[in-house]
Amino acid sequence: MKDMTELVTRISGANPRKCMKCGKCTAACPAYDEMDYHPHQFVDMVETGRLEELMNSRGIYMCLSCFACLERCPRSVEPARLIEAVRLAVIRQQDKNHLKPEQIPPLLDPDLPQQAITSAFRKYRK
Amino acid sequence: MQERVKAKAIELLESGCRVLGWKAGEFFYDVTPAVFTSREEIERDFVFNPFCGANQSKYLIAESRRGGRVAAFLKPCDTYSFQQLQKEHRILRENVYAVGVQCPGMCDMDALRAAGLRGVTGAEDRGEKLLVHTLRGDREVDRSLALSERCRVCKSKKLLDCDEMIGQQGEELVSTRFTEVERLEAMTPEERFAFWRGELSRCIRCNACRNVCPACSCEKCVFDNPASGAENKAPASSFEENLFHIIRAFHVAGRCTDCGECSRVCPQHIPLHLLNRKFIKDINQLYGPYQAGADLETRPPLVDFQQDDPEPSIVGERGTNP
Amino acid sequence: MQKIGVFVCWCGSNIAATVDVETVSDALAREPGVVFSTNYQYMCSQAGQDMIQEKIRELGLTGVVICSCSPRMHEATFRRACEKAGLNPYLVEIANIREQCSWIHKDKAVGTEKAIILGRAAIAKVQLNAPLTAGESPVTKRALVIGGGIAGIQTALDIAEAGFPVDIVEKKPTIGGKMTQIDKTFPTLDCAACILTPKMVDAAQNEKINIISYAQVEEVAGFVGNFSVKIRKRARFVDETKCTGCGLCTEKCPQKNVPNEFNQGLDNRRAIYIPFAQAVPKVATIDPNYCTMLKTGKCGVCSKVCTAGAIDYRQQDEIIQQEYGAIVAATGFEPISMEKFDEFAYSQSPDVVTSLEFERLMNAAGPTGGTLLRPSDGKHPHTLVFVQCVGSRCDGGEKGKPYCSKICCMYTAKHAMLTREKYPDTEVYVFYIDVRTPGKNFDEFYRRAVEEYGVHYVKGMVGKVAPENGKLKVQASDLLGGRQLHIDADMVVLAAAIEPDRSARPLATMLTASMDTNDFFTEAHPKLRPVESPTAGVFLSGACQGPKDIPETVAQAGAAAAKVIGLLSRDHLTCNPCVAESNELMCNGCSACEKVCPYGAITYIDKEFRGPNRTTLVRRVAQVNPAVCQGCGACTVACPSGAMDLKGFSNAQIMAEVDAICK
Amino acid sequence: MQVNQEFRPTIAAFCCNWCSYAGADLAGTNRLQYPADVKIIRIPCSCRLNPLFILRAFQRGADGVILCGCHPGDCHYTTGNYYARRRMTLLFSMLDYLGIERERTRVEWVSAAEGAKFAETMNEFVSTVARLGENRRLEDLRCKSE
Amino acid sequence: MKKLPLSQLDALFAAIAEKRRLYIPAGEAGTASFTPWREGLKLTDALNTARSAKDLFFPQVENLADFKVTGKQIQVIENRDPAEPFVLFGVRACDCRSFDILDKVFLCDPVDTYYQARREQGTVVTLACTEPEETCFCTALGIDPTDPAGDVTAWMAEGFLYLRANTARGEELLSSLPLLEEGEKPEQDRSVFEKLPLRDLDWSAFGGERMMERFNAPQWASLAESCLGCGTCTFVCPTCQCYDIKDFNTGGGVKRYRCWDSCMYSDFTLMSAGQPRPTQLERFRQRFMHKLVYYPANHEGEFGCVGCGRCLQKCPISMNIVKVARALGEEAKP
Which of A4, C105, C658, D108 is the most buried (most CB within 10 A)? Predict the structure, then answer.
């Protein structure tokens, strides 16, 4: 799991140790109610190496990638990047395709913009 | 170019300036910096040709303090030295009328000799080619062959701080001037040591590199001052050869504009610019890009610092490429 | 010819156990220039010192080397002893053969050999030592305090108390500073004005204190004990000597819509104004940006109503040139701009206020007369949300200030408590990251806010404030409760970070005092010299050195005053004689040394020199002010020609030591 | 018969008066051992160290030269060590460029409280230089004739 | 006259080097120097070495004596570099003439024994010129570059090296060498020397008898104005002979040595009262007055210049003895 922590921090380029646990990310999060773990908890879980729980969490797919947490974070920890990195880490796990395409639609809240689309916007914005 | 510069020289002379320029010699290439004070002298002796490579900015230290105004013709790289000297309060700018002269790259007789030309008695500029007259007949060579090293890797054609310009204003160029430094950095320490021993052991301590250098304008050089503990007139040991060149490069570090005069004048063809360029390269990499003489305000890197500057151990940590 | 005496100390067995002192003194006796060499049990004892003095007198020693403990221990002792015997104290060198030899080596042969080498190095150095005399410079017995807040006032009062004249330069029309805007002070809740205004009056009435208000320092020259300062006293268009402060003009002025900075712009004042009732000096000031008379030449109402004839529309800025022995920077702080934190809707709703604005809303002299009313509709708020750390403790750079502003936790507790006390029908939430209450009675105060006054302290941050239908929708996290809160608030109060006043940076440049990256003045030593700037004669008082509350500020103000008094009580300053010196014959005036000097000790003059063949030439050369130079030696290395050298640690001396050690 | 003596390097240690010299004193007070090959030269501040002194030390027989000063930010003179740091970085880089072993020179920041660090640094530096052997590339044979 | 196929040159060098140290000009144009011969070392293509051949008799740095200091005791130790027999091959006519000029200074009373020792041990093999540079003007000083002096004179022509002994020492060298055959060198085409641009330099304005006129000439000011004051001209010059004596403190004693000095330096002949030649003008003038006036005044009209042209090639600002001769010669014309 230690390798995984490194992988996640490397992919994200974010440093969870800079977090001062102020919770502004969680305060700013519009998807709070949908998530089992919240942005500040993501950061803490990455830092303390509880990645397995995180990777098995539904919450990471509830993140809208709206970047409110990233914009608001006073310490430049940028939780959204960590979450995205965790999602990538999940995908990169060979033979453990946690999420099958057919599983996605029921997970989506019709009121919320589709995270996949938002992610895509971000990924291809440059 | 010759005619435009000469006409300007006459014009400036008649407006009351002394004119710093080049005087023709025995051959086409052995021009000597000179101060002209009469129209006859200019008409008879004034030259401006591809061999006018000398950086005349250093003469302005004394000339600008002589009373009255002095006009000077400065090539792009000379203007960097000109401005650096002003930054060090060495030149009284108000007494200088600076004419920037755009430069196509200057030729070097040693480059022609190195190309195997012997007994060269004359040359004609034919654009890309140079027709060289020798004691054993004529030979046509590429003009680039005659270019001095510093001009082949020219860093800037920009004319700084001129009162007027002859030719177009130029731009800073993307230069490959650090290639040779990089080549040395890639060597093993043993190879580098052998390389520099080979080069520096030729030093005869004639001080030409120092005396021509615009950055070396100390009233009294440490190497001339018996009280400094470093004085000597000869490289009396291999250590002294190293000492002289290390300290000289260090003293001009952050002030050297890379005009290349040191290597041009070295009678023993020691590539002294490779020492200066090493410092320039290090400074650029460690402390951010810096070009001495590019402006009058920026603090030179050795009298400046950042709180998060790298530690000296970076020299070891990052291998030979700090 | 040198006559050097060498004295090797046993230090009981401290040295003698691992260094054969006899061998050392014998070996050093053979060194060139040494005429006497001995060893003794305790050189620092009276008997040992007597021996040194006797030999100086008897043999006419020209240099003394003592091989003993660290110079940091007894160099001063031995120098004094030699001075008493008539030898210049700077002709003494210590070879450290205890801390750096006997104590770290076990083998006696090794220790002895090293002791001899260290002794040789000291002898080599002392051969080149020159007698040095500490220079003296006179002290102008007058202090300048820049900034007239509580820090400046307290410093000035304390200095004046000791009998020295002191000028306060204040850029605003009145002294008093930020504290005048504060309603009550924590943790005692006494009224700020009640404790501050008497001090302001004291300052005004003290004969030794001269208040130069509405003025700014323009130029500082000179050095410790001898500063020469140019002060620009701005035209206030009112003759201070005539104005009685009756205030009639401020009532009659037809220009009514000038934002009142005293109330943080929450209400308006006139173009001619007295900032507040207790202002010192209590004289009116015309704001040239708004005065119709000054702008168009038409009006003149104030002039007509002024019975004292104090209005003078033609008044010009006045330049005051004054000499000072010491300067105290007391430029204070400002809350940061809320521009970058628009998630809290500061620009979108007047009901989102900063804590300083909140002070004004609570204050009897404030825009609401002391009744807490919402700025938007003047209604009584029922739900208040306080947000801590706005702009503090950020990642630096774009995000905000990297430091803790230190005072916010306490004043927020105060605000919350006062609100609950006066308006028990309110709900008060405080969102915090940490509650920091180190200080006497501070934590008790905070606990009272929670326990007695029922303030809801929530660990977490506000993520977003959105004005909606006259309410402020606050979205926040409650980290301990594990919920996201949505509160409909009536007011949101932001604890804005504080930063140094913007005038501090240019002032620091004038003073050659150093600053950190946040523009706080740097202290000479963070622990041991906290109220002095590294620049001699410049002292620091209050928040210009770092965030501080009032008691700390007053304590530092007093400490700075004590340092100033210590300086001004001396007629002359003795300078460290080990200072840099420029050899003008070798200097080419390139300015490299000046650039690295942390003290501004180097200046340049154009000097005439004799050239060859009876010519003269004028050259720019460096001069070191020995009263300002602290002897670090940075300049000596920056100087390529070696024109700059350091007395006591000259190039030749250090190289002699190198030679002796590497031989 | 040739006696194979263990090579003992000569080390010149320049220490600033306020931090590192005091740190060296503290090492002594705490009786922390380091080789006698190290000889300390007291300078007011690390910024007093002229590159000439370092070269001089090598010329006169030093096998290693180390500069110790206050930690960056703690300079008694506020900024001296920052200048020293740039100067030494460039000088060391130049020595390395000339093929001189870079392990022979070092800068270490040692505070007045770091007696242990001082001793450790010296132990480590001495063994590094001892491993390199005698300074050959920057020696002056004239100073070695005896 | 002896001859040897050039293909056997290496073998000849090896034979010489067997018994004595052999120096040959080697290296690239611009930096060629007299280098101790070793297997595989080739003669340079360049006409001449960057530094002159005087280095072998009058090296730039030479130990004079050592003083050993022990405590308060000082001991004087003789420490001259041992002079061993050597052969100097490939000296050009100009450099060879410079030895005569130096001899007149160093071997007259009092004899410079350091120089003398080297002179006595050295055998000079000169090499005739065939491809002059445009900067050559030895012919204007009465030197025949095609028939240089020396202990042995050598020519290279048509695939052969021809050797002629001129002195007993030369005879001795040649007789000790194998591989040599008898042979006569072919006649040399001298036409290229007639084309030399500086062949007809006029020296009539100089010499001891014109001392004060030349000394006070107004031209010195403009000639010297751009001089950098470096020592290049003096250090590459085969006839410059000034030296300084210096003490080097080794820590354990003092090494006394001499090294070349340059009259172009600001501390040349510096005295406690100051610099007798306070500006570059005087120092510059000294160099040329010495070569063209003082030396001939003391040595029967012989000039202290051999026309090697090194200063023409090496001066950073292209100021040189030819320009001086022209400028002052111009002035001397009626």
Answer: C658
Which residue type, as a one-letter code, is found at position E231?
A: G
The two tokens of residue B237 are 């040991």
Tokens (6 digits) for C77: 């002792």
C-alpha D13/C-alpha D65 separation (Å) is 6
Residue C26's contacts (CB-CB under 8 Å, 6 or more residues apart) are C37
Amino acid at A94: Q
Please report residues of C whose CB lies closer than 8 A to that of E275. 612
Residue E263: Cβ-neighbour burial (10 angstroms; 0-12, 13-18, 19+)? buried
Residues C432, C437, C443, C445: is their CA dihedral positive or negative?
Answer: negative
3-state class (DSSP) for residue C376: coil
Domain assignment of residue B173, yes or no:
no
Helix (H, G, I), strand (E, B) or coil at C131: coil
Which residues, 6+ apart, have CB-to-CB distance to D136 below 8 Å? none
Select from B54, B119, B234 the Cβ nearest to the Cβ of E132. B119
pLDDT of residue C483: 92
Look up residue E305 and give its amino acid. Answer: C
ipTM of the complex: 0.85
Provide CB contacts within 8 A for C394, sequence distance 6+.
Answer: A74, A75, C400, C401, C402
pTM of this structure:
0.77
Residue type at D80 in one-letter notation: G
User: CA-CA distances (angstroms) from residue C355 to C348, C359, E148?
Assistant: 17, 6, 100
Is the CATH code 3.50.50.60 the one for domain C335-499? yes
Torsion angle of C-alpha atoms C396, C398, C401, C403, degrees rounded to 10: -10
How is chain C split into domains, by residue range?
A: 4-127, 143-225+317-332+501-571, 235-316, 335-499, 580-647
Looking at domain C143-225+317-332+501-571, what is its CATH homologous superfamily? FAD/NAD(P)-binding domain (3.50.50.60)
- 3-state class of E236 per DSSP? helix
Q: Please report residues of C whose CB lies closer than 8 A to that of A41.
A: none
- Say yes or no for a CB contact (<8 Å) between B222 and D52: yes
Residue A115 has what pLDDT?
Answer: 56
Flag whether pLDDT at C580 surpasses 90: yes
What is the Cα–Cα distance from C206 to C208, expressed in whole angstroms?
Answer: 5
CA C237 to chain CA mean position, Å: 33
Instruction: Name the nearest CA neighbour of C140 among C166, C114, C111, C107.
Output: C166
Same domain, residue pair B31 and B120: no
Element (DSSP H or E) covering residue C137: strand C136-138
Whether residues B190 and B261 share a domain: the answer is yes
d(CA B268, CA E31) in angstroms, rounded, equals 5
Residues 6+ apart with CB under 8 A from B205: B232, B233, B234, B235, B240, B244, E231, E235
- Within 198-227 of B, beta carbons closer than 8 Å to D belong to 222
Out of A111-115, C352-356, C390-394, pick the least confident: A111-115
Per DSSP, the three-state class of E189 is coil
State the residue range of the domain holding B118: 113-146
Do B26 and B161 belong to one domain? yes
Q: Give yes or no for A41 touching C (CB within 8 A).
A: no
Whether the predicted pLDDT of C181 surpasses 50: yes
Residue type, B290: Y
Question: How many Å separate Cα C539 from the centre of its chain?
Answer: 5
First-to-last alpha carbon distance for chain C, in angstroms, is 23
The count of structural domains within chain B is 3
Decide if domain D11-144 falls under CATH 3.40.50: yes
* Number of separate domains in chain A: 1
Q: Are B267 and E29 in contact (CB under 8 A)?
A: no
Beta bridge partners of C431: C387, C458
C572-574 and C136-138 strand pairing: antiparallel
Any chain A CB within 8 A of the CB of C80?
no
Q: Average per-residue pLDDT in chain B?
A: 93
Query: C4-127: which CATH topology?
Result: Rossmann fold (3.40.50)
